[in-house]
Amino acid sequence: MRQISFDLDVLRTFTTGIDLGSYAKAADRLGRSTSAVSAQLKKLEEQAGAPIFRKAGRGLALTEAGQTLLGYARRLLDLNDETASAVRGVELEGEVKLGLQEDFGEAVLSDVLGRFMRAHPKVRVEVCVARSSELRERVTLGRIDLALLWEGGAPALNAQRVADLPLCWIGPAQDGLAWNGQAGGQHDAGSPLSLVLLDAPCMLRDIASNTLDAAGIAWRHAFTSASLSALWAASAAGLGLTVRTPVGLPASLRIIEPQAAGLPTLPQIGLSLYRAQTMAGPAVNRLEELLLQAVHETIRRVTAA
């Protein structure tokens, strides 16, 4: 059987179009004409030996073969980029201080740091996992170089909006386990809703309470903690509902559909990447690049589930 060598340039066009939701946007991003992009995609289908797109209304969707190809394409491109970075940046040195929310600590940290340290072993990385308010203060004062944090309004001048993510009511995954002092999976209007929240000050805590107040739903604090892992444990045990995005959600918890549970719909929350207002070195720039790649991949995965 003849061995196929996929063209990495074509794979990059393929994944960029999926990420941007449009191959016209991909052509603009990559500096190619739409006809050149179409030719690349035709070549990719020929190499794959199977259709990778199907009609979906007025647009296109991936076939099963296309979904499989997409996963491998991302892995091949990641390895290619890591290799190029390692070869070019073997002498990269210095220090990078990174700040993250707990939500992203487990979801992206090990992958990002592993790739970065393999490529740049002479760079020392310090990581601070903290609340958004503390991270914003630290990066503003120049105590950390990069900070990934939640915020409700527009990002500051030294920041870029990475994504807007849905906030969700979250409760125990176990069927039949009570999450408001009762089983059945629906809020009892005759009793206050039990909430499991982080200690104040906390933006998500304020959003949850304000949303319930606006809907005229009584609530109470059933559990508070400074630790996200403690929050997950309390919610999984059925002490009450918590409010987070789908990022980092443990298997012991599930998203509660608001309409089915008699609850109001929660708003979205912004995720922004802040940079210290000093000139960043090449080590900071490279870690930022890897971090954004990992965050976008995590968001694609959790929002597609």
UniProtKB/TrEMBL annotation:
- Which keywords belong to this entry? DNA-binding, Transcription, Transcription regulation
Q: Which domain of life is it from?
A: Bacteria
Q: Does the keyword DNA-binding apply?
A: yes
Q: Which Pfam families match?
A: HTH_1 (PF00126), LysR_substrate (PF03466)
Q: Which InterPro entries match?
A: LTTR, LysR_HTH_N, LysR_subst-bd, WH-like_DNA-bd_sf, WH_DNA-bd_sf
The HTH lysR-type domain covers 6-63
Q: Per the similarity annotation, which family is this? A: Belongs to the LysR transcriptional regulatory family.
Can you say what this protein is called?
Answer: LysR substrate-binding domain-containing protein
